Fold these 3 entries.
Entry 1:
Amino acid sequence: MPGWLPRTLLWQTFLLVALLLTLALAAWSQIFRYFEEAPRARDLAQMVVSVVNLTRTALINADSARRRELLIELAALEGIRVYPAEASDEIQPLPDSRPMRLLIAEVRRSLGEHTRFASRWKTLDGFWISFRLDPDDRDEYWAMVPPDRIEKPHALEWLSWGGAALLAALLGAYLIVSRIGAPLRQMARAARAVGSGQTPQPLPESGPQEIAVVARAFNQMAGDLARTDADRALILAGVSHDLRTPLARLRLGVEMSGAPEDEVTAMVTDIEEMDRIIGQFLDFGRGAPQEPPQPVDLSALVADLAEPYRLRGVALNLSLPDRLEVPGRSLSLRRALANLIDNALRYAGEDKPLDVSLFEEAGAACIEVADRGPGIPEDQVERMRHPFTRLEGARSNTKGAGLGLAIVERVIRAHEGRLDLLPREGGGLRAILRIPLTSSSSSRVRMPAVTAGAHRA
């Protein structure tokens, strides 16, 4: 669609209806004009013939001494001028239009084929017509009929009435189209509310049958989604209690079983992996975060999240500014960053250092987690953003449910940002969370308090 056209259904339909009405009015005007020209030509021809006949009769019956006075009176009272025709007269023909052709034909039918017409005689403009005092007379005269008697009267008035009729039709078309657009706008607002996890007010199921049917179906869908969301929350609560509690008892039993230490460590590791996978399912199943957005200091968040990994002996190289705030949800961002770090440790191994840095770039706060693992092929990056997706190559032997990046993608989109998965020079993966800054919450990055390769407690 061309860029100059409106994108809303209301204005697209209105412009289409307005175009149709304008074309219809123009077509009817042309039709009326076409069929009105012939009767008008006959009326004008009758008037012109009457003027010529009366002028001829007056000149024939008037005394030769008074003809000059008669011509002066005709010019003064009726606007009709009469001059003798000469061979040297400079004349300009009438415009070649259908109304003029019809008029000329009607006048010649009454006055004879020898009748001539002109729009200018010498330097005088008007409707000029030639006539003879006697059919056998070779002398001709020119009679000028005032132009206002030939021109179509009330043209401006007809144009005004036509414009008023078109305006009224356009107003009616706008009212008709707005009756369709208003329910659609209400439905769009309700759909956005449903998409954000809210339960909108039921749409009115009145009005035209088609709109009422759609509104009824939408209300039913919204109700079904609300009930499904409630059931999902109930199931997640049950899963969290009914699965994690037995896992905790199982871990305690394994640790107290007295089995060899290497076997206990392997079983505990499997139990922790099961608990982690259950946690990922729960995180993904919760959907949109319910935590309200507020200013979040990303420097403090990253440092606080890195502390447990540091105590486990993981080599995390932090590069953080003193302070960098964004509007966001702290718990969701912690979950997303933890998933990125866990994902990097799982694929690169805990024996290799991870570089975690925070910086500002192009109006966004960027949290980068860089590892030295096998990386992700460029043609697989988009596929890895989807849930339950894992690589078939180098990363296929690693445990996991394939939900880590999907959870990160959902969290970052809720913050109107994006997740970039880029290859790292020298091998590995750079996962970058880009969170937009606002003018009120953006803080310029100062000199880092911690440099690359150092740990921040």
Entry 2:
Amino acid sequence: MMIAEPWLLVFCAFGLLVALGTTSGLLNTRLSVSEPLACALAGIALGPVGLGLVHLDPGTSEQAATILREAARVALALAVTAAAIRLPQGWLSAHWRGLAVALGPGMLGMWLASTAVTSLTLGLPVVTCFLIGAAVAPTDPVLSAPILNGRLARWAMPRELINALNAESGMNDGLALPLVMLPILLLGHGPEDAGLEWVVHVLLWEVGCAATVGVVVGWLVRSGLLWAEARPDADRASLVTVALALSLATLAGVRLLGGDGILAAFVAGAVLNSGIPSEEIAERQERFNEAFGRFFDLPVMILFGAVIPWQDWAGLGWRGIAFAVGILLLRRLPVWLMLRRFMPWTRARPEALFGGWFGPIGAAALFYAMEIQDRTGLQTIWPVVSLAVGASILAHGITGTVFTRMFGHWQRRAFQAEPGE
């Protein structure tokens, strides 16, 4: 592992973030290239095939794997908190049925479809395929944010679809843990012992602990925020500061308890969101999304670009290409088409196609790949999962603006064609 000229690396990375921030989304809207894709390309330029400032191999170096895993964990905690803050107050309780379909059968379908694609294209052992399928199943809030925010999204997409994709990408990153842990436990235990450990330790303790702590911590912070704002001598609190501290404190606290800190961060953010005065939500959310998205989430994409395992990808040959294409087309799109009648935001086929395509694979997959590698020692996980992430960053990065505009034009034609309009 080597990082040459650390300060030059910092300058290049955060200089890019300054440029993205000052141009205010022009890269995405004018050049049809997403900011995460631009950051990944910058990471490639900083890595071994570019300037050679970074030489990290998470597939073989435990220290490099730890850096990538913890960077992805923090980025996810911040991103899911931002996703929770973006939701209108009361949205989760009002739409829990449709969300349960997306997170239940939808998540299970994406897991099984990804597993099948991995098995058919790469021919890996069954349990390994299930592990890879679980790692790439959750949608990524870091890559979803550019699609769901900004002027173009507000013009083109129905508000309910934006909220649904926000909520799904925020929640399924933490809820993917049971899917990841079940094959891991089956590798080291018999079916009965693995099943018992999965129910007691994973579902009841890790997931249950996360939800409980998230509710309690979010309620305490919300109560403190409301109490302070009710006092005439108190200054107006900064939502960015409060939510950032809440996200990282929740993540760290739940990790110390052995729970799922990513899920807890989303729950805490959702509870906090219910305490923001409604007249201040729009202004605060806009500042919050920009600060979290550009400054905290995008650096993990730079890191990913710098650690891409090019030789391992080349070693996969045509099977790797078939895997990447299969994951992009079959992991999510058919599942959303089958379930669209049960989710109110995808009743129309174009809405299901759009929502089914934009379920990107990113930081969550990187995190779970490193977690699986650490727990199992399997060296095949990182090259395959990173290939899925790279394919998603490229495909969704160059289609985001184009497809969103096309979807917006369809929305207007459909609205004008309605009787009585």
Entry 3:
Amino acid sequence: MYIKGIVKKDKKTKNLTSRLQPGDIALISHKDLDEIAALSLSEKKVRCVINTEKTISGRYPNQGPLILLEKNIPIFEVKEPSIFDDFKEGDTIEIIEDKIVYEGKDAAICHYLDEAKIEELLNIGYDNIEKELDKFIENTLDYAKKEKGLVTGKIPIPKIKTTINQKHALIVVRGKDYKRDLETIKSYIDEVKPVLIGVDGGADALLDFGYTPHIIIGDMDSVSDNCLLKAKEVIVHAYADGRAPGLDRVRNLGIEPVIYPSPGTSEDIALLLAYANHADLIVAVGTHTNMIDFLEKGRSGMSSTFLARLKVGDKLVDAKGVNKLYHSPVKAKHLASIIIGALIPIIILTLIHPVTKSFLVLLKIRFKLLFGL
């Protein structure tokens, strides 16, 4: 195999994707490559991916590598983490068989993950899933006891300027299929006009579809500056002790945000914020709801999500996967029905018009004379 391209590198894949161009070689350090990261890389049409971590560790069956495989994007692994320092961003490198070549010299040995190898590693993950499930359940129950203040009212909800009372609230999270689900419910957004709440990178998805978020909530690690500046209100998710890593970034943009100290994930507190402000209905897109979702996020349990959904109850409509539920292709029979329906009033109006009636009478007389009737 021979590949040549420009290197773009970052140890955080989500930071790298904004700089990638079609044909680039993505140099990452991403253990257990997840679906969202793989989708981001494939959307950028990278030539290949070089990973200094184990793309599939076997701890659980992460699905990211399968996405790259389906898109014909090769994945290579290297064991030398120092490769990040060996290349500068923008360097041109070559991959020749099992070697990475830079300026005509062998820089590192790489290992290609073909379909058989990916399947082998994923099978190890499937075999290990029961052990991970046991740990996941224990962690969820353990942390649920510590985080029960989320639903008992002991953790105060900050006051916000945005009015949610008796309105629908749409919460968009950067999760699996979030863009396709958002596209599927576009007519709902245009008609109902819900309050738009973007959780970190989910806010950029709203902007991509032509909507300005009313609220952005999160630790601000994956939302763009452009989106932050356009949003009507910004809420920084802080740790329970008050530390807020994303606060300085927001303030450096000249934005004074609301601070929301709370345990749990940003999507959980977005649900609780909408609920506490008396949303009539909460629609969630791209949320993380199962064990694989949470393992891909690097979390060992889902206590806060369990508690938040327990409190929000029947006000929540989860639109995750809705793009698979509803398809509306234009079929020939539907098109024929529309054409016939449009022609009927035209034909009726034509037949009752005086000029047309006179023409038909003359045509009738001509027909009788022609055939001697």
